[in-house]
Design a protein that fits this description.
With 205 residues, the chain is mainly alpha-helical. The chain is 40% helix and 9% strand.
């Protein structure tokens, strides 16, 4: 997680916003480990200018910042919300916003309805959950930046314990596979979904 945050911190310092962070857009640097991750797919990435919020609705349902979906304008903090959804997946093995229909997922995402069921979160430390909550803060003004996230106590603790290897994308991917089938080949433009979704029969998550 640290290398993702370091990459985002560098990007944001240089006024670059990714706008489509999700597990599918993270790749492993090497087959030798499952923690050295790189950010990929900069198709939606753009530069941001001081005092000029971005307005294009883009990204992937379930990983978008609420302010992006609300159409109120957004900045680099939208990336931080996406990081929060990714960390949620890594820690729990579950998607942040669940649903059998795309519309349900997007509405839950827009309203920022985040739950932490004991079934998946009882073994997660308070420090880890605190970082997730700070990243998933609905109000971007109160959401932590990449630089602030890098200073979070949990990152320092977990690195000292050398336990990042337990947080692999592969461990969580099987739980997301069916839901992710709903989110293939789509774009969001002018508030309407333009999709090329293939037909799948989703199974309960």
């Amino acid at each position: 997680m640290r290398n993702i945050l370091e990459a985002l911190n560098y990007m944001h310092q240089n006024k670059v916003v990714h706008r489509d962070l999700k597990p599918a857009n993270l790749i492993l640097e090497s087959k030798e480990n499952d923690w050295d991750i790189r950010i990929a797919d900069f198709g939606f990435a753009t530069f941001i200018k001081e005092g000029e919020p971005l307005t294009l609705r883009c990204g992937s349902p379930g990983y978008q910042a609420p302010e992006l979906l609300e159409g109120d304008g957004y900045d680099e903090k939208a990336d931080m919300f996406s990081v929060g959804t990714i960390l949620y997946v890594l820690l729990s093995g579950e998607p942040t916003f669940k649903g059998f229909r795309l519309a349900t997922i997007m509405e839950s995402n827009r309203k920022c309805v985040v739950e932490y069921p004991d079934k998946y979160w009882s073994m997660v430390s308070d420090d880890a959950k605190d970082l997730v909550e700070r990243l998933l803060e609905k109000d971007p003004k109160h959401r932590i930046s990449a630089a602030q996230a890098l200073e979070h106590e949990w990152l320092n603790k977990i690195e000292s314990l050398m336990s990042l290897n337990n947080l692999s994308l592969s461990n969580a991917s099987h739980r997301l596979e069916e839901q992710d089938k709903l989110l293939i080949n789509y774009k969001i433009k002018s508030g309407e979904i333009e999709s090329e979704l293939q037909l799948y029969t989703a199974t309960p998550i």
